[in-house]
Amino acid sequence: MENKNVVGIVAIILGLIIMIFPFMSQFVLSIIAGIGILILGIYYIILGSNLWSISKGSSIAHVILGIFGIIVGIILLGNILIFDLLVGLYLYIIGFMLLLSGIIGLFTRNIMMTKASAALMALLGIITIVLGYFALLSPIYVSIILGISLLIDGIAIAMGNFDQVDDLDQLDD
């Protein structure tokens, strides 16, 4: 079995687990995210203390960032509501960025195909904003969004034919 199949199957399994056990999976994800941010905060404090002799301003900035990371990491540990809030805000930010980029592309691009991709980007932005809205409504929606995303991605990875890129490279030789 190839690596891409294993990754695809793991993504499908994780997607199903997240949708079957939404609150438990969000609890686990919030712990993982909290630990990650906590470790990053500790890293920044260590980095800041090592930079003291080189640049006091940079050192202080890193220590402040590290303290902020530790506080956010501790707050996020096991806190499903804050995890959902951050996921919702993330989706809103990405959605608005995609929407604005698509609108700008519609007015600045000359070729019809690139205008179509800009319109698609704007549509994806709107969909992402809607997903952000649902993510802020209830933790269940975050689980459904994450689960479906992992299922679709897992199926695409497991079923996808990524060997075509290698064939094109061989044509150039």
Automatic annotation (TrEMBL):
Record keywords, A-Z: Membrane, Transmembrane, Transmembrane helix
Transmembrane segments: 5-21, 27-47, 59-83, 89-107, 119-136, 142-162
Keyword Transmembrane among record annotations: yes
Matching InterPro entries: DUF308_memb (IPR005325)
Pfam families with a match to the protein in the record: DUF308 (PF03729)
Name of the protein described by the UniProt record: Acid-resistance membrane protein
Native source species: Methanobrevibacter arboriphilus JCM 13429 = DSM 1125
Organism ancestry: Archaea, Methanobacteriati, Methanobacteriota, Methanomada group, Methanobacteria
